[in-house]
Amino acid sequence: MSVKSYLLILFHLVPWSLGMGAVFYFAFIAVPLANRFLTGETRVKFIRWNIKYYSPFFLLMLSIVVVTGAWRLTDYKIVLGLQYFQDVSTVLIIKLCLFFVVYILAAYQSFGLGLKVTGQGDKAMEDTVDAAVVDGVFKKMRWIAIINLIVMTATAYVGLELSRIPYFQ
Ligand code: HEM
C-alpha cells in the first residue's frame, strides 16, 4: 500500500480518536467535575465554556473523518471497478447509516442545544443564562455524547470490516 494510503487511514483514525476523547471528556469528566466542585455562576460559566469549545471541535473531527474516508473510498473504486459495488456496498451502507446518526446527533447537540447556552457572536458569552436552562441543556448534551460514543464504536467495528476487504491487504 502507498504512503498516501497509509496517511489517509492515519488521518481517518486520529481525528476519530480525538473526537472520541473529546466526547468522553465532555460526558464523563466535564459534567461530574462541574456538578461536584462548582456552584452558582462559576459552574454555569464552566459549563458554557466547555460547550463553546467542545461542539466545534467535535464537528471538525467528524468532518475530517468523512473527508479522509471518502477519499480512501475513491482508491477502492479505482482498483475494484465494477467489483466495488458487490464487495463494498453492503458494509459501506451500514457504516454510512451509523455515521449519519452520529453526525445528526452531533449537529443537534451543537446547534439545537449548545447554541442555547453559548449564544452566537463574541459578546454572547457575557450574557447571563438561567442556570436551570444550562442544566437542562447540559444533561441532554451529555446523553447525546454517551449515545455517540456507542454509535461511533459500532461504526469503527464496521470500519474494521471495510478495511479487511481482501483486495487491499
Ligand atoms: C464515526 C465515524 C467513523 C469511524 C469511527 C470510522 C472508523 C474506521 C476504522 C476504525 C477503520 C479501520 C481502519 C483500519 O483497519 O485500518 C475505518 C476504515 C475505513 N473507513 Fe471509516 N470511520 C468512520 C466514518 C467513515 C466514513 C463517513 C467513511 C466514508 C465516507 C469511511 C470510510 C472508510 C474507509 C474507506 C475505510 C477503509 C480504509 C482502509 O483501506 O483500510 N469511514 N474507519
Give a quick summary of the entry.
The chain is an all-alpha fold and 169 residues long.
Oligomeric category = single chain
- Structural class based on helices, strands and sheet pairing: mainly alpha
Poorly predicted runs: none
Main beta-sheet annotation: none
SSE string: HHHH
Small molecules (ligands, ions, cofactors) in the structure:
protoporphyrin IX containing FE
Report Rg. 19 Å
Count of discrete alpha- or pi-helical segments spanning 4 or more residues: 4
Shape: elongated
Distance between the termini: 8 Å
Q: Kindly state the percentage of residues in helix.
A: over 70%
Overall number of strands:
0
* Beta-strand share of residues: under 5%
Could you report the average pLDDT, rounded to the nearest whole number? 89
General description of the model:
The protein has 169 residues and is mainly α. Helix content is 86%, strand content 0%. The protein has helices at residues 3-37, 40-80, 83-118, 131-163. α1 packs antiparallel against α2 (40-80) and α2 (40-80) packs parallel to α4. The longest helix is centred in the middle third of the chain and has 41 residues, at 40-80. It starts with a helix and ends in a 6-residue tail after the last helix. 23% of the residues are buried. The mean pLDDT is 89. The structure holds protoporphyrin IX containing FE (HEM). Residues 9, 12-13, 16, 65-66, 69-70, 72-73, 95-96, 99, 102, 152, 155-156, 159-160, 162-163, 168 line the site of protoporphyrin IX containing FE.
